[in-house]
Amino acid sequence: MTPAHDPATASTASTADRILLLVKTRGPLSTATLAQVLEMTPEAARQQVQKLVAAGLLAGRQEPVSGAGRPRQAWVLTDAGYARFPDTHAQLTVQLIASVRQLFGEEGLDRLICQREAESRAVYRQACGGRDLAQRLERLAEVRSAEGYMARVERDGDDWLLIEDHCPICVAAQACQGFCRSELQLFQEIIGDEARVVREQHLLANASRCVYRVSPRRVAASAQLTR
User: Fold this and answer.
1) Contact, 6 vs 131, CB < 8 A?
2) Number of domains the chain contains
3) Which Pfam families does this one have (predicted)?
């Protein structure tokens, strides 16, 4: 599958592909929301969703609602649905990780992760250096998107959210979670002491994406003083 950049309007993508990309980048989503974004009737959206469910690409999830009321049904990607997106030769990567672990032990695997981190650090610093916090985040998202992470930045009050809708090394990270730990540390280095970086959502913790909250430290300190 080659996702279109705008799943709501891309004319070259099939309706099924547009739904999968919408759920990937904005999900979990209800049938009603899909119908609205895609400018379809609710019945047409329901039929398309059911085809994807039957194909094993989507699954239902009960989402809580604020206040009183019954949980609503939303749709998320299954493992087969995620497999429709690039995985950077996942099987080969897992085999290589297993080989490194067998030949060199955990210490050797840690050295491999450190080497990858050092290479990424050089790239990210070159891209993000000499910029203010907001600009560093935007450039970091651009570089991560070029690496296949479908990254974007959104403002959330005084904070920013670095959102990664896809993980091209997800299977490798499942085999060795040191990759995820390394990325979080690296993001904090690139952002610097000006802000704190916390991972709020994690694909490996059954979230639909990875989300990092970036909180300027002066704001965090002010919030603590007012409590």
Assistant:
1) no
2) 2
3) HTH_20 (PF12840)
Within-domain flag for 6: no
The Cα–Cα gap between 24 and 170 comes to 14
Res. 66: pLDDT tops 80: no
State if pTM tops 0.70: no
Confidence (pLDDT) at 10: 46
Q: How many residues does the chain have?
A: 227
pLDDT digits (tens, 9 = 90+) for 129-175: 888 999 999 999 999 998 889 999 999 999 999 999 988 888 778 87
> What pLDDT is attached to residue 9?
45
Domain extent, residue 186, equals 88-216
Q: What is the domain-level CATH number for residue 120?
A: 3.30.1380
Buried b (16+ CB within 10 A) or exposed e, 126-144: ebbeeeeeeebbbbbbebb
Between 179 and 133, the more confident residue is 133
The domain that holds 19 is classified in CATH as 1.10.10.10
- With contact defined as beta carbons under 8 Å apart, do 172 and 224 qualify? no
β-sheet bridge partners, residue 59: 76
Q: Which of 135, 129, 118, 141 is nearest to 190 (CA)?
A: 129
Q: Which residues of 170-194 are buried (b: 16+ CB within 10 A; e: fewer)?
A: bbbbbbbebbbebbeebbbebbeee
